[in-house]
Design a protein that fits this description.
alpha/beta, 14 helices, about 290 residues, about 50% helix, TIM Barrel
Amino acid sequence: MEYSTILNQYAPAWSEEQVAAAVAQAKVAAVANQNVEVYKFCLSAVDLTTLTCNDSVESVTDFAKRTSTFSEKYPDIPNVASICVYPAFVETVGVAVDGTPMRITSVGGGFPASQTFLEVKMLEVAMAIENGADEVDIVLNVGKMLTGNYDEAAAEVEMIRSEMDSDIILKVIIESGALKTPELIRKASLLSMAAGADFVKTSTGKIDVAATPEAAVVMCNAIKDYYQTTGRKVGFKAAGGVKTPQDAALYYTIVEQILGKEWLTTDLFRIGASSAANNLLSAIVGSEVKHF
């Protein structure tokens, strides 16, 4: 498929001034969403993440067990959406959460740089799914996007999508902090969706500029336009640098204002986070808690 021609179906991205105005408006509106009910929903939308060089079978097992038993300690607060780990730890999480409804997210496809052979990316994703991943987060090839090789970048996503059954959720990270401009962020989002993404995600959290409200505005507008053109709903995931309850409420508000309340479900909105989960929980219970 010539994906670059698909971009011609859509209007150009908003200007930086238009994006800034939308962010300013969302920040004002977000104050009203800084409340326990919104925080509970945001916690339920978290893909609780451990992606460090220190991860081990022992540490990931402990991490997963603490997460899967959350509801025993806090029965009136919804648990996180999933546990997100490197592919090699998918089976470890599966053993730890066996018998629970906890979903497993694996990064894959040469995460976080996406700089390896396509065949390796496809095999890694296939192995993660075989080991029990319910959802997979991959990275769009940023280098190809920056050099205008849009067809190649999107075709990689399509090929990786082909390794998955339809019930596996594919989230495509566009690394918005590297793309920088509204136009490239919009193009990356539209191409990812056209190639089969179920979610578009801001960042790996592994570069200096991670999720920003500005990128979220551009991405959510792209999701809206894609839905109006195709009728297919694609989710939005904010990840990288989302730490405080106020951060979560702001992204919640951006989704609410651009996409509407129908997008405020865990099927269409996620937050990739580690420290944010404890911070949200603390805000909900009214005292500092470190459960996760």
